[in-house]
Design brief:
alpha+beta; 11 helices; 14 strands
Length: 302
């Protein structure tokens, strides 16, 4: 692969809090609905993935070395294929694969010259993002969602004194306790340990990163919580949602109440990926997403 441009990977730097304003400005230029294009997400997972970033020709590039994933760039104008090829070559010069991830289908459809430099491959189903109408999650209409409504009603009958409250700093210890209880049941999964680090970082910088959250308390105990943040002008993403699995209906209540809380703030809720976990996939599919957001890899040709 040969291009006239030269991308210096050494100019990339770790994602830090002082970068928030600049990165958010660049993210807003593309206004992607993906949860990957959110500064709160980039920052809270940066410790796990070693995330670095830089601008190149006015476009934002983000790389996660531990998984060798380079995000398709954010830009106010269309990124040229030549630029993508140069960036890919710069990564390969530093012993990375040069693969570009989360490439929108629309870009591929309008840039057939991509095939001169890259092989286009769909990202796996485990990377698909579940996007819902906020109004549907808040109202749960129709027969297909009747089971959700029934579970919520059952919870309300069993816990007539339940309380729903915004997560505040004084609640962080309680939120972590439920997270730890859930983590201890999944000690064989490294993804769970990574998520623990991300949750702790989210709570540490909760206000500065613009997080919001709800907690469901019944009988004096935390039964579920959700932590979420804005992606763009009409979308929020739910970064974390946990429920006491022994408490029937708690999961459905926190999902429903989160949507009600966001009803006047956004049209869409992104509930992120299922990571190929069968139970999680079934649960997310059962809420009838309006869109499964699937992007592509650009894999450099030899």
């Amino acid at each position: 692969m040969s291009t006239e441009l030269c991308f210096d990977y050494g100019a990339m730097k770790p994602v830090a809090m002082e970068d928030m304003e600049e990165i958010q400005r660049l993210l807003a230029l593309s206004n992607y609905p993906s949860c990957e294009y959110s500064f709160p997400n980039l920052y809270i997972w940066a410790e796990v993935y070693g995330t670095v970033w830089r601008t190149f020709r006015g476009h934002l590039y983000v790389h996660m070395p531990s998984v060798d994933e380079l995000l398709f760039p954010c830009a106010g104008d269309a990124v040229s294929v030549g630029e993508l090829a140069a960036v890919s070559e710069g990564l390969r010069a530093n012993r990375f694969s040069g693969t570009i991830a989360h490439v929108p289908p629309a870009y591929i459809a309008t840039h057939p010259e991509l095939h001169d430099f890259f092989k286009v491959v769909p990202m796996g189903e485990e990377n698909d993002e579940y996007i819902y109408l906020t109004k549907m999650l808040a109202e749960l209409p129709g027969g297909k969602l009747s089971k959700k409504r029934n579970l919520i009603s059952q919870f309300e009958r069993n816990y007539d004194n339940f309380e729903l409250k915004r997560i505040e700093k004084e609640d962080f210890r309680t939120v972590i306790s439920l997270t730890e209880h859930w983590r201890l049941e999944h000690l064989d999964d490294t993804r769970v340990e990574n998520e623990r680090k991300a949750i702790n970082r989210a709570l540490e910088y909760y206000t500065r990163l613009g997080f919001d959250g709800l907690m469901l308390v019944a009988g004096g105990e935390l039964k579920a919580y959700a932590v979420f943040s804005r992606i763009n002008f009409n979308s929020f993403t739910v970064q974390f949602e946990k429920a006491d699995l022994d408490c029937k209906g708690a999961s459905q209540v926190i999902t429903n109440q989160t949507a009600k809380h966001l009803l006047n703030q956004c049209e869409f809720i992104n509930r992120e990926q299922d990571l190929g976990i069968p139970g999680l996939r079934h649960a997310k599919q059962s809420y009838m997403p309006i869109l499964m957001l699937r992007d592509y890899y650009l894999i450099p040709v030899p």
